[in-house]
Every structure is written in C-alpha cells, then in structure tokens.
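Entry 14. Structure prediction run on the chain below.
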Amino acid sequence: MRIILVFCVSFLLNGCAMSKAPSEKINGVSFVAAREAIEDRHTNPVVNVGANYAAIMPFGFLKNLDHPEIIHNTDRQWFGETRSGGKQYIEELRKKNIKIMVKPQIWVWNGEFTGLITMTNEENWKDLENSYTSFIMEYAELAQETKAEILCIGTELENFVKARPDYWHDLITKIKTIYKGKLTYAANWDEFKRTPFWGALDFIGVDAYFPVSNNQTPSVADCKAGWQAHKTVIKSVSEKYDRPVLFTEYGYRSVDFTGKEPWVSSRSMTSLNFDGQSNATQALFEEFWNEDWFAGGFIWKWFHAHDKVGGDKDNQFTPQNKPVEFVIQSFYKSK
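Output returned:
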C-alpha cells in the first residue's frame, strides 16, 4: 500500500546596509535529471507540494578524483543531464510559475565524494580549471538564456576551492560577465565555514546534512535541540558576510537514526522509519523558515515520475508518497 499523499531587501542598522533574505521564502525541490523530457504530469506534483522553486541539475563526469577532464553535455548522457534537457525542464516548470536555480554538478566514477577532488601536479590543476570553466560557463549561458533566478557555481568541491582560491574568484568575475541573476555555491555542511568567496556571491549556500540526533527515531524536540550549536555558527557566517543563507540541499532518509549522519546514502542501510524522517524535517522548518536571515532551501531529492517513486517501501531521501511530503506541503504552502 502506497502512502499518497525574490527579491532581496535591505534595512539600515547602525548606519550600515544589511542584506536580508528574500521576502518570499525559496521553497524548492531538487528536480532530478531523467532520461526523457518532462510534461504536465511531471510538473504538477511540484506545484501540489507547494514549491515555488526547482533546482535543475545538469551533470559533468570525472573518471576519478585526480582526473582533470570533465565530460559534459554529450549525447551519451541522460537527456535531463544536458544543456538541451535542462532548457526543456526549465521551460516546462516555467509554465507552472516555478522559479529556477541552475545547479550543475560533478559525478565522480563510483560515486566518490567530490570534496576530495585533488590534482597531483600543477599541469593537471590548470587542466581541471580550464575544464571546469568550460563546464560552468555552458550553464551560466543557459541560466542567462532562460533567465533563471539563481545559478549555483559548484557543489561540494572543498579541496578544489581550498587549493585554487584565486581561480574561484576569477571564475566568479567571469560568470558575472555572462549571467546577471543571483549566484550561490553549494558548500557541504562541514565546509561552508571555510569557503573564501561568500562576499562575491548573493547567497551563502549550504548542503545542510548536519548531524542533529543520535536517536533511532528522533523527535522534533530532539532535532531542534541538536540544531542549536549548528544554527549559531550558520547565523554568524551570515552576519560576517552580510548574506542570507540558502540550504542548496536539505533532507533526511526514511531510516532509523536519520539525524545521526544525514549525508549517508549507502544502500546497506535497510531499515524503514517514516516518523524519524518527518520529525527531522519538521524540526528543520521550525528552526529556520521564520528567520529573516534565512532564504529557504531545496529538498533532496524530487524525481520527475512522482507516481513511481518513494512510498512505503522506500528508505531513500525522496519525500515523495511518504508522510513527510505532507510536512513539506504544510510548510511550503504557508510561507
């Protein structure tokens, strides 16, 4: 049995202009790239859950963590992973008045963590920089062409950012010659404090997989308590750079101990726990969605074929056809 279910403002503080989050929260879904084009039956569920934004995620591919060539926008990729696919997705979502964040991502063979991408010599670093520039400018052009509201310039690339900070500052300058919308970067939850270029972007982007509870079925209160230390740091970074925080990804699996290590995607985890997923998600909403320095976020992750995913046997991240979908809907439609 399946369970069915912006604009920035400013104010004066001590004589200084303080950046604020959009008056309308970004209630987003991370819209997963698929093999085929999308249509009404794929976009209507995005509207039904109350989302006003979707992250479109084209992909580039690396052979391994020290390989410098990013393969992207080829006819060997799934349609939704390419530039033409991204454009078609954006056009269909626009018909439903859904705003867009273009979020190009890197996939390393065998699912290696992108934060560990590291070249072994200067020549390869230069090659990676050239390849990444080609990749990201492809989608900066798409974002400008489609007038996407936000462009995310990278996702969880800490070693690359740490090793080549001048490159990233130069890349941001180059992107701004093409794309005129808002910019962010999706830093991993344990990375964002060290990201050096927030002042050049519009949002402090965080993939928000913070550990918040060690309990098998965390309660809302457990998770709210677990957020307090993290929230203090997040707010302090927002104040330091005078930028609103955007959760470029957030979400929990429907498993036991979902709040302990929320980033874990291993299929060796076989438990099912919908209460934990719902409670952790509700706690996140209650802690952040009313904060004026918080811009909103994108739930991880939302598949196009809504009627074929999630449900009462699925323990992955998707909220679709699970009780947590109603939690998301209740908050999204109220903000």
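The chain is about 35% helix and 20% strand.
Filed with the rest of this week's runs.
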